[in-house]
Design goal:
The protein has one domain. The longest helix has 34 residues, at 22-55. By secondary structure, it is an all-alpha fold. The chain is elongated and about 55 Å long. Helix content is 67%, strand content 0%. It has helices at residues 2-8, 22-55, 64-88, 91-100, 104-124, 136-140.
Length: 153
């Protein structure tokens, strides 16, 4: 009886027979590519800041621009985390993950976590995901659960 009650609370997207529409998969792939771009930009910015700090003995002057750029990247990352989490996990997770990206170092962890969720979801639906995400062509060329010509019809 307990298993039946737990099955009632199952997320509809976690059911093996559920197949997301192509438009949703393309949105997930597009949002994931933006997340990857933000993560790479943040890593490059942090790496540059650390390199400048190590090369100079004191705090480097003129660091207002990188700080503003980091703020802009954080906002863009938060927006795409929110949008991707909304597609994958729902409204509550979108708000929680979106707000968690405000915290500077934790934001990078959240970006990476949500990117992993997107990769798992795309692979579950037969989409090949590379280092820089999935391309829309991979989504169009993926095998569908319902494309079985020997289905008996």
């Amino acid at each position: 009886m307990r298993e039946d009650a737990m099955a009632a609370f199952e997320d509809e997207f976690d059911r093996p027979s559920y197949e997301r529409p192509v438009e949703e998969l393309k949105r997930i792939a597009r949002y994931q590519r933006w997340l990857i771009a933000v993560v790479l930009a943040q890593l490059a910015l942090w790496g540059g800041y650390i390199a400048l700090t190590v090369l100079s003995e004191a705090h480097p002057a003129g660091m207002e621009f990188p700080a503003i750029l980091m703020l802009i990247l954080g906002v863009v990352g938060g927006i795409y985390v929110f949008r991707l989490s909304w597609e994958l996990r729902g409204a509550f997770a979108a708000f929680v993950f979106g707000l968690a990206t405000i915290i500077p170092c934790m934001g990078l962890v959240i970006l990476t976590l949500v990117n992993g969720y997107a990769t798992t979801e795309l692979r579950k639906h037969g989409v090949k995901v590379g280092v820089f995400g999935a391309s829309p062509l991979d989504i169009d060329e993926r095998p569908s659960l319902y494309d079985d010509e020997d289905a008996g019809w």
